[in-house]
């Protein structure tokens, strides 16, 4: 009996070990992503085989982020006389070309770089030694001569090429969505020949609904924005590279701003240091000064419409989104009720689409931006229940928190109040802002001047002239109040805004903080503590 039990136990143990071994040996291995495929061509244009062996491997899967081809043994694909005709192989370089793809994002394009002396060709066009271009689905790769076509590239990762007209996809590789809003979407695109990144704004043209035109997609307003953008040439204005106008939509190719929105920079840090605020603000004022000199009033200035060209602290500022802008002649005025209410000037609110207003509305909006940059909360908001947003703006009664303003210089406070002045005739002008004491920082002026001059040379814009003098300062207001902090929480749908055209709007979550910095849900104690600038 004992032997039988032992035999049974041994048999069971062997069976378990066998099952374990089988399980380990048959565990599915990691399956790599095949992001592309190179199909070997069968014939050239002369009808002759390029490959020595007619039964040459049909295709080669691209799995690694880099694929190189040439005669050198270090290449991913080594060409030799046993594979390809001798009259061809002798003209092939040790490293003919390399294909790279950043696999961190699935919609990044494959980029081919020519490393040869005798040339690498894509669709019959020579790339040139040291140059690169974007590879797209079904592109034909040739080496040493445009007729020596060896591969057809197949892009196995998702792309959006078929979502745009053919004449656009022929020039630009369509990548991921950067943002989406009421007016349409913005996508990242690559110039195929230059391998440069751009933003492509796609604005769908209006659809008739109950006989009415959607004002966000009104073709007239779309073309108004395009005409304005095409006419503007300034280092601090987002430049329009190209426009494609089709029956269904307008495709606007814009320079890509890698640093994101000023709004995001503020919400990330809570508020900006005063010196960095001065660096950004000087550029904004110069940009708006240029706009006004060209007869353009932006009318929708806000941190979401101020973009940065890099992630660096001291980045180049670019103003965008001219959907609400308007050319203003010497004797003409504006009276349309437009813009985002949080940043609207009193005269715009008072006009209500009936009365007139002028360029000064942009100065007020810049004042609100300056306010937010310095302290990180909104000067006016519907969340301040003691007074309606309309009345706050009409009376110029912004929310002032000593706890947030205590470390801000007196000159900055005075400049902010001069900009948020209700009476248009008393409001500070753009020229006076540049001459204001708070703006007189020689190091900042030099840094901004160098940055703008460098950007102007690249874009072939005219050089700017900067000025500086002094002005008076104001006294600090010390009332204690409750304030509303700006916090970015995913997509932004401004509760205090009219329909906005900026892509991927982020929501402003209004968190209530007391002047001492403690969170509170009661704002009634702040009813009489709104600081009036009158």
- State the helicity in percent bands: 25-40%
* Helical run tally: 13
Distance between the termini: 106 Å
What's the CATH topology label of the largest domain? Transferase(Phosphotransferase), domain 1
Secondary-structure-based class equals: alpha+beta
Cα-atom Rg, whole angstroms?
31 Å
The CATH class of the largest domain is Mainly Alpha
**Beta strand count:** 26
Q: Write out the strand line-up for the largest beta sheet, numbering strands in chain order.
A: 2-1-11-10-7-8
Q: What is the CATH superfamily of the largest domain?
A: Transferase(Phosphotransferase) domain 1
Uncertain residue ranges: 4-8, 324-339, 463-480, 489-534
CATH architecture of the largest domain: Orthogonal Bundle
Q: What is the average per-residue confidence, as pLDDT, rounded to a whole number? A: 77
Strand content: 15-25%
Largest sheet: 6 strands, antiparallel
Taken together, the total number of domains comes to 3
Shape call: elongated
InterPro entries: FHA_dom, Kinase-like_dom_sf, Prot_kinase_dom, Ser/Thr_kinase_AS, SMAD_FHA_dom_sf
Biased composition (Polar residues): 515-534
Pfam family, one: FHA
Region (Disordered): 1-22, 498-534
Topology:
Blueprint (H helix, E strand, L loop, with lengths): L1 H24 L10 E5 L18 E4 L3 E5 L6 E2 L7 H4 L7 E5 L8 E5 L5 E3 L2 E2 L5 E4 L4 E4 L5 E7 L10 H4 L2 E10 L2 E8 L5 E8 L3 E2 L2 E2 L5 H13 L8 E6 L3 E7 L6 H8 L4 H20 L2 E2 L8 E3 L8 E3 L6 E2 L18 H6 L8 H16 L13 H7 L1 E2 L3 H4 L4 H10 L10 H6 L6 H18 L23 E6 L19 E6 L17 E2 L2
Parallel strand pairs: 3-4
Antiparallel strand pairs: 1-2, 1-11, 3-5, 5-6, 6-9, 7-8, 7-10, 10-11, 12-13, 13-14, 14-18, 15-16, 17-18, 19-22, 20-21, 23-26, 24-25
């Amino acid at each position: 009996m004992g032997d039988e039990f032992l035999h049974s136990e041994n048999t069971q143990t062997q069976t378990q070990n066998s099952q374990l071994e089988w399980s380990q040996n048959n565990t599915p291995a990691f399956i790599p992503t095949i992001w592309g495929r190179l199909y070997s061509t069968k014939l050239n244009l002369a009808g002759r085989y390029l490959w020595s062996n007619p039964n040459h491997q049909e295709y080669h899967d691209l799995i690694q982020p880099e694929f190189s081809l040439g005669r050198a043994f270090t290449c991913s694909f080594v060409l030799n006389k046993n594979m390809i005709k001798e009259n061809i192989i002798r003209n092939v370089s040790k490293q003919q070309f390399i294909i790279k793809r950043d696999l961190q994002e699935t919609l990044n394009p494959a980029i081919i770089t020519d490393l040869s002396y005798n040339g690498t060709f894509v669709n019959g066009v020579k790339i040139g030694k040291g140059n690169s271009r974007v590879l797209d689905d079904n592109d034909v790769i040739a080496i040493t001569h445009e007729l020596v076509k060896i591969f057809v590239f197949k892009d196995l990762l998702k792309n959006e090429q078929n979502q745009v007209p053919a004449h656009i996809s022929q020039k630009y590789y369509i990548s991921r969505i950067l943002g989406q809003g009421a007016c349409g979407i913005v996508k990242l695109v690559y110039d195929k020949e230059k391998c440069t990144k751009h933003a492509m704004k796609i604005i769908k043209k209006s659809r008739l609904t109950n006989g009415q035109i959607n004002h966000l997609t009104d073709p007239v307003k779309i073309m108004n924005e395009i005409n304005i953008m095409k006419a503007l040439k300034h280092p601090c204005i987002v430049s329009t590279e190209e426009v494609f106008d089709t029956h269904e939509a307008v495709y606007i190719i814009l320079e890509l701003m890698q640093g994101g929105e000023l709004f995001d920079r503020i919400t990330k840090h809570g508020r900006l240091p005063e010196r960095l605020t001065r660096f950004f603000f000087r550029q904004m004022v110069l940009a708006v000064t240029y706009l006004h000199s060209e007869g353009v009033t932006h009318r929708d200035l806000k941190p979401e419409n101020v973009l940065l060209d890099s992630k660096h602290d001291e980045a180049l500022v670019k103003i965008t989104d001219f959907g609400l802008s308007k050319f203003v002649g010497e004797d003409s005025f504006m009276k349309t009720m437009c813009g985002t209410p949080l940043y609207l000037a009193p005269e715009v609110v008072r006009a209500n689409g009936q009365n007139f207003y002028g360029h000064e509305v942009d100065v007020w909006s810049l004042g609100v931006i300056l306010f937010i940059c310095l302290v990180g909360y909104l000067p006016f908001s519907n969340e301040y229940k003691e007074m309606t947003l309309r009345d706050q703006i009409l009376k110029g009664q912004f929310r002032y928190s000593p706890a947030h303003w205590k470390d801000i210089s007196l000159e900055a406070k005075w400049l902010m109040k001069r900009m948020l002045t209700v009476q248009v005739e008393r409001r500070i002008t753009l020229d006076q802002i540049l001459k204001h004491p708070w703006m007189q920082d020689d190091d900042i002026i030099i840094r901004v001047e160098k940055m703008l001059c460098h950007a102007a040379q690249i874009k072939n814009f005219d050089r700017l002239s900067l000025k500086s003098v002094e002005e008076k300062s104001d006294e600090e207001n010390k009332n204690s109040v409750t304030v509303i902090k700006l916090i970015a929480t995913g997509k932004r749908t401004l509760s205090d805004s009219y329909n906005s055209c900026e892509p991927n709007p982020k929501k402003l979550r209004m968190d209530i903080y007391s002047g001492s910095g403690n969170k509170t849900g009661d704002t009634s104690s702040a009813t009489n503590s709104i600081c009036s600038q009158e």
